[in-house]
Design brief:
Radius of gyration: 21 Å
Distance between the termini: 49 Å
Structural class: alpha/beta
Order of helices and strands: HHHHEEHEHEHEEHHHEHEEH
CATH superfamily of the largest domain: Vaccinia Virus protein VP39
Strand content: 15-25%
CATH class of the largest domain: Alpha Beta
Number of helices: 12
Number of strands: 9
Strand order of the largest sheet: 5-4-3-6-7-9-8
Shape: elongated
Largest sheet: 7 strands, mixed
Helix content: 25-40%
CATH topology of the largest domain: Rossmann fold
Length: 302
């Protein structure tokens, strides 16, 4: 049974050191029934991250930092952060206004989904392929994948596409922070519907793919993210269908389309078997990114 909200932080006023706060916070996470997966995978890592960030300490701080004593003002700040996280159920990334993909940091807020993608594994493999000079990142959100693509393909231009003006405002901040405005161009478009004529060597997309019923039943932390970035319609395939249809005329002769689809692999194989989907291996064997060549896509009858 979850602890009542008013009791989650009971006793916090007597905490003196970072180590005491860490131990207290781990127990509070359990009492709150907090859910992970947006920033960290367990209470220890997320609580330590929030403590170090709130206190302005380096993320690489060693065990000695646990003995650091907090001032009264610092205790109040830390308590306020964990109240937002555990009582209001605000994701940690929205509290700190940052998220990470690998070693790359990105600005995030409630206007965008918190970056997390298996493309972090796949893109470096794709970067070994020659001749990729023009790339599209469809449903770019915070712009994180477009930036990773631009850095992995230093000779390529990237079109970062999203239907949400709020998401594009965040993406603008991230593109500017990485000084990539000359190579990453942001576009407001529903998939390719409002895009000018252009063809690509590589199209990647991490689109909304959760079925609507799944989105409605998500834990509170995930319901804080923009529904537009999560909800893929009744069966999760609404945006993917549009992407496949519109990408047919957007790929160059040897181009490739890569789509991350979460738990929809079986549904994709059933509906789009004619496309000869190739599922790319991931470290955890989820294998949830499919690759489609320009030939099968052009021949496909939608």
């Amino acid at each position: 049974m979850k602890t009542p909200e008013k009791d989650l932080l009971a006793g916090a006023s007597g905490l003196a050191t970072l180590g005491q706060w860490l131990k207290f916070a781990e127990a509070a996470y359990e009492r709150a029934g907090a859910v992970f997966g947006q920033v960290a995978t367990d209470a220890h890592d997320e609580a330590l991250y929030l403590l170090l960030h709130t206190l302005g300490l380096p993320m690489e701080s060693g065990p000695d930092a646990l003995a650091r004593r907090l001032s009264a003002a610092e205790n109040r700040r830390v308590a306020a952060v964990f109240r937002r996280r555990l009582v209001d159920r605000v994701p940690a990334a929205y509290i700190t206004r940052e998220a990470w993909l690998g070693e790359d940091r990105f600005y995030v807020d409630e206007r965008v989904i918190i970056p997390r993608s298996y493309f972090l594994e796949i893109i470096p493999r794709m970067a070994k392929r020659a001749g990729i000079l023009k790339i599209a990142d469809v449903c770019t959100g915070s712009g994180c994948l477009a930036i990773v693509l631009a850095r992995q393909f230093p000779g390529a231009a990237v079109d970062a596409i999203d239907v949400s003006p709020d998401a594009l405002a965040v993406a603008t901040l991230n593109v500017a922070a990485y000084r990539l405005a000359r190579r990453v161009r942001l576009w407001r478009s529903d998939v390719f519907e409002d895009m000018p004529a252009a063809t690509y060597d590589l199209i990647v997309s991490n689109p909304p793919y959760e079925p609507s019923a799944v989105v409605s039943a998500l834990p509170a932390e995930f319901r804080k993210e923009p529904p537009l970035a999560l909800d893929g319609g009744t069966d999760g395939l609404d945006v993917i269908r549009r992407l496949l249809s519109q990408a047919r005329g957007r790929l160059r002769p040897r181009g490739r389309l890569l789509i991350e689809v979460g738990g929809l692999r079986q549904a994709m194989d059933r509906e789009f078997s004619a496309l000869g989907l190739r599922w790319l291996p991931t470290a955890d064997a989820s294998d949830c990114i499919c690759e489609i060549g320009s030939g099968p896509l052009r021949r496909w009858k939608a």
